[in-house]
Amino acid sequence: MTAPSPLADAEPPPGCARCPRLAQFREEVRTEHPDWWNAPVPAFGDPAAWLAVVGLAPGKHGAHRTGRPFTGDYAGDLLFATLARHGLSEGTFAASVDDGLRLRGVVILNAVRCLPPENKPTPAEIRTCRPFLEAQLARLAQVRVVVALGQIAHQSTVKALGGRLPKARFAHLAEHAMPGGQTLIDSYHCSRYNQNTGRLTPEMFDAVFARAVAMRP
User: Is 207 exposed, middle or buried (0-12, 13-18, 19+ CB in 10 A)?
Assistant: First the structure.
């Protein structure tokens, strides 16, 4: 299912101004592209999910343009293809919010909900946006496995779940037991850069979700 209704009251408002730099950048992009989403990007997926995927932040030509996480950019191609291969989606991903894609048992969140300049949120912006991540993870009572895409998502997720970073160091395919009973699995982010440089291969990414599926409750 795609309706995020149980999570809606934990989303930032469309005109969220908690992070002045991000709010200003959002308005600059709106001037250039007034037909884009140009707002904090909400969660996408199954409200009864057992698996949560946490990314970094919306991409300029992806989620910030379309309004759906990982939709419209290079990173989403690998993510949604991998989810489909493991039976975690229905329909065909066509990089558009009207493609009819539905996630099964999975919800996608971001550590930061607004587009950051150069894809680099500041520590203060990550911290300011974390309450939304905390609130939504708390509402997702059936989530037992969380996949963090990249080190920033890892750090924010550990904190959101009440863990301690010194005891949960980021590494691809590393697993961490969280205080609430969830298991956090780390992955390098499926960004174009990581894929093009070979830091993350499709096989490496697939192994993360194969492990997650093996832990399905």
Answer: middle
SS3 165: helix
Exposed/middle/buried for 120, CB within 10 Å: 0-12, 13-18, 19+? exposed
CA dist., res. 143 & res. 58, Å (int): 22
- The CA-CA-CA angle for residues 207, 121, 34, to 5°, reads 100
| Positive or negative torsion for Cα 185, 191, 192, 193 | negative
Here the tokens at position 51 are 């698996």
Q: Sign of the CA dihedral 161, 164, 165, 171? A: negative
Q: What's the distance, CA 179 to chain centroid?
A: 21
* Full-model pTM: 0.95
**24-71 per-position pLDDT tens digit:** 999 999 999 999 999 999 999 999 999 999 999 999 999 999 999 999
Confidence grade of residue 2 (pLDDT, cut at 50, 70, 90): very low
Tally Cβ neighbours within 10 Å of residue 67.
18
Answer for the pair 183, 157: CB distance below 8 angstroms, yes or no.
no
